[in-house]
Backbone:
């Protein structure tokens, strides 16, 4: 008879999920799973809506990363119209995508994960949050909040709203940018850059402090997938897909992202509403891949901005000869490099005269019955695939999101941490928090726009082979 | 002049839960000089924004009440242990005070009665009526200084722990 430990809800992530840890009769961890127990069905209820509405509808999937869905959906619309969009529109969409990276990455690092690092995994749970941090790290948390505000302001000033803006549309964007808004955003750059560099300095010290723990946080070989630019640089909006393995070998390159379905499959498991994507050229058991900041830094050959490129080189030196970092704790490191890149690139885009152009939208009829949009969302590569009739009415939708693509790796991370930290005899909050922290490395986004009523407690029981409660923990 | 920020929050895809957003949008229509946000949830960077206003009014949907509730918030009230990215109005007030050393003189939370939370964009008749009721009452507080608003709200206190302006509807 197996015994099961349940952690529910997993805290400081976007959405609702639980972890179960199965023990064998010796009390040792046999398996561990990360379950997503909410169901939303966006793909289904988009059917019958007009293709033109999709950016506005799909941006409602998430309250944290709506701009990524917005831009990706608009790109799928571009594909259905079979047109290229004006250069100004593309650069403005790029600007918004980077604003999304900054605000989402800042939230993940400063607000959700740093309480573990700065207060300690075993610190008092009641204080292990942003309020606890304020007592000793006031400047750090203030800077993090303002960095996120910078990202939000980019989205708001471009889209006219903080979230769920209908600004990006098939063919471009709804309205041009102007000098006044450009000046407001440029004024943020020095502070944002300084905060990004400060965060990297803090994280490097955290790595020294937790050198003993870090090797347990999802440390295994997998594939890495993401977009790279035509010459292999870090990409976030265009480019082609690259697949690199855990030994640093590029096993597929220049994949047309619109043909993603030829390369990636999805498997369902009875115990989770979240699917399990895998790389089809291998099989399900070997096709596990990771996306997001760690994957993007692992697969790119360079970063086009100087400060971020310098940090990427340090990161690669830590990774060693294979130049691929296989440890999921380094998602945080990669995330901060990406913030630095985003701030530098935002400055470059804002200083590009083309973003003030007046021509921001191309118009066309429905020219294709199928379209795919692809973008690098903060958590990884995002695909929107629409099928329409001749009037542009949606017949079918497939969305492949980053959080799903990391599902296999995230489950393996949970298992690795459970084996390392649980002994089947005694539960402590610190043990369970380390397992949750393994999940937070991936910054999963489990559809946070659905309002939950009430708050679920955390209650864990450790049950022996004879079904006796050996230990019990409530938070 | 009192610098006022209105923040309505909730999910407009879950029926009455969107009451806060709709109320903030209605106030923005009627009072274009005010800063009004309609949001799905409250996130930390709002603390920085709040720090430069005199008066901040949060509007949310609330289950189990029949009439409007209008609270004056204090930092120690409503503070939670945040388990995700979303915060309460009390959390935000606390963040504003502790991190930005400047808090609004007056922070209020208005609860709008809500009962239907299905997957739809329609709100119940009662909730819509309460939104309009609140929007009208809010207009009466527009020209008051923060301290006077506190007086107006406290003048209707029904118990010591909760400041309430009874609805004039029903």
Residues:
């Amino acid at each position: 008879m197996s015994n099961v430990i349940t952690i529910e809800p997993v805290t400081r992530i976007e959405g609702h999920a639980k972890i179960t840890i199965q023990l064998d009769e010796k009390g040792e961890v046999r398996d561990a799973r990360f379950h997503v127990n909410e169901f939303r069905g966006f793909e289904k209820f988009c059917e019958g809506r007009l293709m033109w509405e999709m950016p506005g509808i799909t941006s409602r999937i998430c309250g944290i990363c709506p701009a990524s869905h917005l831009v990706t959906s608009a790109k799928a619309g571009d594909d259905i119209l079979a047109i290229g969009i004006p250069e100004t529109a593309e650069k403005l969409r790029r600007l918004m995508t980077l604003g999304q990276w900054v605000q989402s990455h800042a939230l993940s690092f400063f607000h959700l994960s740093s309480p573990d690092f700065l207060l300690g995994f075993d610190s008092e749970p009641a204080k292990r949050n942003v309020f606890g941090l304020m007592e000793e790290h006031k400047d750090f948390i203030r800077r993090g909040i303002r960095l996120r505000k910078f990202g939000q302001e980019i989205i708001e000033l471009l889209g006219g709203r903080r979230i769920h803006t209908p600004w990006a549309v098939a063919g471009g964007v709804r309205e041009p940018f102007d000098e006044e808004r450009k000046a407001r955003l440029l004024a943020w750059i020095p502070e944002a850059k300084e905060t990004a560099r400060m965060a990297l300095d803090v994280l490097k010290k955290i790595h020294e402090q937790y050198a003993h723990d870090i090797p347990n946080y999802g440390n295994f070989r997998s594939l890495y997938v993401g977009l790279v630019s035509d010459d292999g640089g870090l990409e976030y909006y265009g480019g082609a897909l690259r697949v690199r393995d855990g030994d640093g070998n590029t096993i597929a390159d220049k994949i047309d992202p619109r043909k993603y379905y030829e390369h990636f499959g999805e498997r369902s498991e009875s115990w989770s509403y979240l699917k399990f994507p895998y790389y089809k050229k291998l099989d399900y058991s070997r096709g596990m891949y990771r996306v997001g900041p760690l994957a993007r830094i692992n697969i790119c050959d360079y970063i086009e901005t100087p400060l971020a490129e310098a940090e990427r080189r340090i990161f690669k030196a830590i990774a060693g000869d294979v130049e691929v970092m296989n440890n999921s704790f380094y998602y945080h490191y990669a995330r901060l490099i990406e913030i630095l890149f985003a701030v530098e690139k935002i400055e470059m885009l804002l200083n590009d005269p083309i973003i003030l152009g007046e021509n921001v939208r191309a118009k066309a009829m429905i020219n294709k019955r199928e379209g795919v949009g692809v973008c690098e969302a903060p958590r990884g590569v995002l695909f929107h695939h629409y099928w329409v009739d001749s009037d542009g009415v949606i017949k079918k939708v497939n969305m492949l999101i980053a959080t799903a693509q990391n599902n296999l790796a995230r489950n393996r991370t949970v298992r690795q941490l459970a084996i390392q930290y649980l002994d089947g005899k005694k539960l402590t909050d610190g043990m369970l928090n380390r397992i949750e922290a393994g999940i937070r490395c991936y910054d999963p986004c489990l559809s946070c726009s659905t309002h939950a009523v009430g708050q679920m407690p955390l209650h864990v029981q450790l049950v022996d082979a004879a079904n006796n409660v050996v230990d019990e923990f409530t938070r | 002049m009192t610098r006022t920020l209105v923040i309505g929050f909730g999910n407009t895809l879950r029926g009455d839960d969107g009451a806060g957003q709709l109320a903030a949008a209605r106030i923005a229509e009627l009072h274009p000089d005010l800063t009004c946000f309609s949001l799905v949830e409250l996130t930390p960077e709002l603390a920085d924004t709040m720090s430069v206003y005199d008066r901040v009014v949060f509007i949310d949907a609330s289950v189990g009440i029949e009439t409007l509730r209008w609270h004056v918030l204090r930092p120690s009230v409503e503070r939670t242990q945040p388990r995700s990215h979303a915060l309460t109005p009390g959390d935000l007030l606390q963040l504003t005070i502790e991190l930005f050393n400047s808090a609004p003189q007056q922070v209020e939370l208005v609860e709008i009665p809500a009962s239907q939370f299905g997957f739809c964009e329609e709100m119940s008749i009662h909730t819509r009526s309460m939104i309009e009721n609140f929007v009208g009452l809010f207009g009466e507080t527009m020209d008051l200084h923060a301290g006077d608003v506190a007086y107006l709200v406290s003048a209707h206190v029904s118990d010591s722990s909760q400041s309430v302006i009874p609805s004039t509807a029903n």
Q: What stands out?
A: The interface with chain A takes residues 10-11, 13-14, 17, 37-41, 43-45, 47-49, 63, 79, 81-86, 91, 94-95, 98-100, 117 of chain B (CB under 8 Å). The radius of gyration of chain B is 15 Å. Helices of chain B lie at 19-30, 46-50, 89-100, 125-141, 146-154.
